[in-house]
């Protein structure tokens, strides 16, 4: 799909400098721009590329002035970065604008769905499922019995949503995610043989939640595993049974959260963090990558290390960690001197 500079400027409320009929059909970095591509310049470090780029159109800030000739058509806007982000969202919406029910696929007779459903081939919709308007379910996806899905939800290819899961409006669940599998519940007898504890709860995902590819969210043993509104989960995260993730909390890839832990609002959790079970993590907590958390955390704490300690304490201690062998040598030398002087 092609757009002219004039059309893009109208969408972004910008001004064209150059050829208003210049056409683009793809997006590119400014250093990789080619004919027919659209790019942007917001970081001054990349200014030199605007004189070299082969991109047909470049979005720039209103106050940007060239000091030598450029071949690219400029669109001047208030904030080039924000404008380009707006175009990315617009482009993505067009790219993902699929509709209709592809075959082969299966929809239970008593399932209900709203307007503009897209159901990709080889997908399955179980009994008593309720799906809202403008929902997209991409190929090879499974929606189990009694699942409820709100409006404007996108479920990408290969997602598995187990029974009784509830998904709010405006959520996105990326490929390969598994929502509502059994929690890790087993009880050993006197001889050490494990028996499975039935997991009869569900998963509740509130509105405006993003769930990354390959992420797994286990159903509760009783009650619900809950992902509160606005939470953002990266790829390959494990969330165990009865966990609660607070509003607008963001969690990076490969983090694991053990059962029944409650995480507060607006937290930032780095990649490969491990959090033990039955803990309470406060609001606005920041946990650095590869930290291990085994205790309750108060509001506004910042942690690093394994086991995690206060962020500033960790940084001070790390100086000593690096010099530990030298410190030991000095202590040995002092010990020898004391013995010799004794």
Ends distance: 88 Å
CATH class type of the largest domain: Mainly Beta
Count the domains.
Answer: 2
**CATH homologous superfamily title of the largest domain:** Hexapeptide repeat proteins
The dominant shape is flat
In round numbers, the mean pLDDT is 94
Tell me the β content. Answer: 25-35%
Main beta sheet strand tally, sense and closure: 12 strands, mixed
Give the beta-strand count: 40
Number of helices: 4
What structural class results from the helix and strand content?
Answer: alpha/beta
Helical content class: 10-25%
The CATH architecture term of the largest domain is 3 Solenoid
Give the uncertain stretches in residue-range form: none
As laid out across the biggest beta sheet, the strand order is 8-11-14-17-20-25-28-31-34-37-39-40
CATH topology of the largest domain: UDP N-Acetylglucosamine Acyltransferase, domain 1
Q: For this entry, what is the oligomeric state of its chains?
A: single chain
Work out the radius of gyration. Answer: 27 Å
Subunit structure: Homotrimer.
Catalytic activity: a UDP-3-O-[(3R)-3-hydroxyacyl]-alpha-D-glucosamine + a (3R)-hydroxyacyl-[ACP] = a UDP-2-N,3-O-bis[(3R)-3-hydroxyacyl]-alpha-D-glucosamine + holo-[ACP] + H(+)
Family: Belongs to the transferase hexapeptide repeat family. LpxD subfamily.
InterPro entries: Hexapep (IPR001451), LpxD (IPR007691), Trimer_LpxA-like_sf (IPR011004), UDP_GlcNAc_AcTrfase_non-rep (IPR020573)
């Amino acid at each position: 799909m092609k757009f002219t500079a004039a059309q893009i400027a109208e969408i972004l409320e910008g001004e064209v400098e150059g050829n208003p009929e210049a056409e683009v059909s793809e997006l590119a970095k400014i250093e990789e721009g080619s004919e027919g591509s659209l790019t942007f310049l917001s970081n001054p470090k990349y200014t030199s590329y605007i004189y070299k780029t082969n991109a047909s159109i470049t979005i720039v800030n209103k106050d940007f002035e060239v000091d030598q000739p450029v071949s690219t058509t400029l669109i001047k806007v208030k904030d080039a970065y924000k404008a380009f982000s707006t175009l990315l969202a617009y482009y993505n919406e067009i790219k993902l604008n699929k509709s209709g029910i592809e075959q082969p696929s299966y929809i239970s007779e008593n399932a209900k769905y709203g307007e503009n459903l897209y159901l990709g081939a080889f997908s399955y919709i179980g009994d008593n499922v309720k799906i809202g308007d403008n929902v997209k379910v991409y190929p090879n996806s499974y929606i189990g019995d009694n699942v409820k899905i709100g409006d404007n939800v996108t479920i990408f290819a290969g997602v598995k949503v187990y029974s009784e899961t509830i998904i709010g409006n405006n959520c996105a669940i990326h490929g390969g995610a598994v929502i509502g599998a059994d929690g890790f519940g087993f009880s050993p007898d006197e001889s050490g043989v494990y028996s499975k504890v039935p997991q009869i709860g569900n998963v509740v995902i509130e509105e405006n939640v993003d769930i990354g590819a390959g992420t797994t969210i286990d159903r509760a043993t009783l009650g619900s595993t809950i992902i509160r509104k606005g939470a953002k989960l990266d790829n390959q995260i494990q969330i165990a049974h009865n966990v609660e993730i607070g509003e607008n909390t963001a969690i990076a890839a490969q983090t694991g959260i053990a059962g029944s832990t409650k995480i507060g609002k607006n937290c930032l959790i780095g990649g490969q963090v491990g959090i033990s079970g039955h803990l309470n993590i406060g609001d606005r907590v920041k946990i650095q990558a590869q930290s291990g958390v085994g205790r309750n955390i108060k509001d506004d704490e910042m942690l690093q290390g394994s086991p995690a300690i206060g962020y500033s304490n960790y940084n001070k201690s790390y100086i000593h960690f690096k010099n530990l062998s030298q410190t030991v040598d000095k202590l040995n030398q002092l010990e020898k001197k004391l013995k010799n002087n004794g």
